[in-house]
Write a sequence for this structure.
């Protein structure tokens, strides 16, 4: 193959004399020779540098971000047209002729005494639809694994009208982080020519109906085959509402049993907690594993609670977390045998 290229393309191993970095000006009616290779140019409808657009909805107040709260966006469902099984299936799987994005049906419900909202009031139940990629983004971050915490996190939900569900509001606009150019090769000059994309459209203006409502995702249903979100509801959150927080083990290497291959067989992977109004909502409650031996029973007294977080009073004092199994050593009986062997020596 090398000999064939050498016979037919004598300069195949040589780099081209000039590589044009900007746009091919022949497409715009300008000769290539008039272009400066060091200066990128702009295509019609495109910019060589485009500023990053950030939707104001995703910029939360500092008081919320300090509490480990992330934003979510949802839209109202149109009564009669977006209710029922068939309409929900169409929302989840829009056809090529539909002018809207994939939406996951759900409902916003629950009480919030701080805003005088009671769950017994019918008006407290709001039918909403959430963009599929809004939910999938959070599932990729927090759902998968034994300690997935998507349904144990607090989000700031902003609700818009149904007609404001426009795809341009959700497109990623971090232009500087990825290359949106398309490239072509000019056979005459042996140059690589980028074709800049057109400008991204500016999303239409919209006004939220509800802003930064604190919610916890609940009733998450996943498709049995595709394993994507099929339905998700939101329950209102307030400081006096208990929240289940996942448990994560730390200092496993300081456990005589776990460092020999043992493991903690967890019975309860989360614990109900109360979080103060101004305290950060932790993603995990740490479980101290230092000193754990084989067959040790782990209870709630080993949990390390951050400041402003307390265990709910209805959680029993002997709340069982798990038991250590799997290691052939590290028990108290083994320590006694070791001491006896040393005395005999």
């Amino acid at each position: 193959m090398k000999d064939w290229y050498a016979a037919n393309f004598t300069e195949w191993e040589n780099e081209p004399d000039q590589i044009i970095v900007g746009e091919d000006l022949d497409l715009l009616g300008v000769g290539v020779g008039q272009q400066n290779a060091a200066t990128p140019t702009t295509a019609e409808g495109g910019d060589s540098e485009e500023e990053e657009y950030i939707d104001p909805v995703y910029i939360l107040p500092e008081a919320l971000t300090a509490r480990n709260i992330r934003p979510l966006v949802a839209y109202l469902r149109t009564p009669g047209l977006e209710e029922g099984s068939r309409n929900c299936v169409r929302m989840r799987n829009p056809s090529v002729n539909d002018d809207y994005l994939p939406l996951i049906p759900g409902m916003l419900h629950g009480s919030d005494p701080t805003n005088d909202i009671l769950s017994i009031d019918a008006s407290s139940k709001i039918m909403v639809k959430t963009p599929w990629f809004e939910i999938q983004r959070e599932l990729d971050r927090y759902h998968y694994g034994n300690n997935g915490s998507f349904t144990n996190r607090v989000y700031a939900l902003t609700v818009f009208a149904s007609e404001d569900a426009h795809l341009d509001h959700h497109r990623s606009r971090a232009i500087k982080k990825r290359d949106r150019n398309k490239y072509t090769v000019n056979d005459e000059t042996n140059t690589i020519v980028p074709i800049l994309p057109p400008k991204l459209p500016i999303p239409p203006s919209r006004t939220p109906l509800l802003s930064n409502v604190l919610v916890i995702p609940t009733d998450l249903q996943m498709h049995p085959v595709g394993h994507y979100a099929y339905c998700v509801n939101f329950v209102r959150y307030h400081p006096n509402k208990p929240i289940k927080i996942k448990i994560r083990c730390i200092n496993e290497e300081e456990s005589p049993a776990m460092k020999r291959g043992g493991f903690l067989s967890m019975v309860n992977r989360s614990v109900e907690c109360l979080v103060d109004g101004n305290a950060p909502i932790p993603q995990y409650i740490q479980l101290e594993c230092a000193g754990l031996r084989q067959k040790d029973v782990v209870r709630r007294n080993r949990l390390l609670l951050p400041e402003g977080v307390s265990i709910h009073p209805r959680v029993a004092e002997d709340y069982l977390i798990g038991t250590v199994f799997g290691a052939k050593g590290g028990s108290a009986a083994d320590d006694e045998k070791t001491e006896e062997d040393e005395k005999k020596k």
